[in-house]
């Protein structure tokens, strides 16, 4: 079984976010980048398939050279090889189309990704990719097994979970639950040293034109002053007369 895992290169959630060039570009100064947390859950599940079923695991990123340390971390976790599509991922559809070219040329059985990236939270790339390559698709996946060409999966829905059956080839958009946080892997020194020798192939983009462009960024408005009250009557009065929510 050949598995492709999409790795997004995202700012650590503790990073302080700023913008430059009149709020039109993200300021990367002092920002630490990591594997997208949702992708890391899916990568860990791919490693389970590698160890239990002998799968081969390739990781892929659509991004410029600055993303390579993140790919190397994925290799240190245990992926066999890596691919970087050398283009700035400015648009979800552009990313999906570049990934589609990799999938079509690679003969992959399973494509694993996070349900969304932790920076833009678009939740669009896995579904668009599945459509472009005509693979089955399960979103919000919290459980997955493969037996031959048969796939059984559990996905999160409003108010509960749904069990579904499908077949290979398939795109899975995973989240916490596909593995648990305690199962996530920290690269050890041996893995880090081995990652330096594993192939990281740089692929030039296919020439897809982005469908959208960023006009500007804006931070959320700062929170207003907090007003403390001592009793319920005062609280009700403020909610009714000042906030006008009751």
| Average of per-residue pLDDT values | 94
**Low confidence ranges:** none
Distance between the termini: 58 Å
Structural class: alpha/beta
For the biggest β-sheet, the strand order reads 11-10-9-12-8-1-6-7-13
Number-wise, the strands total 13
The biggest beta sheet is recorded as: 9 strands, mixed
Present the secondary structure layout.
Blueprint lengths: L1 E5 L2 E3 L7 E2 L4 E2 L6 E3 L1 H17 L2 E7 L5 H10 L3 E5 L6 H15 L3 E5 L10 H9 L2 E12 L2 E8 L2 E8 L2 E5 L14 H7 L4 E4 L28 H10 L5
Parallel strand pairs: 1-6, 1-8, 6-7, 7-13, 8-12, 9-12
Antiparallel strand pairs: 2-5, 3-4, 9-10, 10-11
Helix pairs in contact: 2-5, 3-4
Give a quick set of tags describing it.
alpha/beta; 13 strands; two-stranded antiparallel ribbon
In brief, what are we looking at here?
The protein is of the alpha/beta class and 246 residues long.
Word description of this protein:
This protein is an alpha/beta fold. Helix content is 28%, strand content 28%. It contains 6 helices and 13 strands. A hairpin with a 2-residue loop joins strand 10 and strand 11. Helix 2 (68-77) packs across helix 5 and helix 3 packs across helix 4 (125-133). The longest helix is centred in the first third of the chain and has 17 residues, at 37-53. The model has no long low-confidence stretch (mean pLDDT 94).
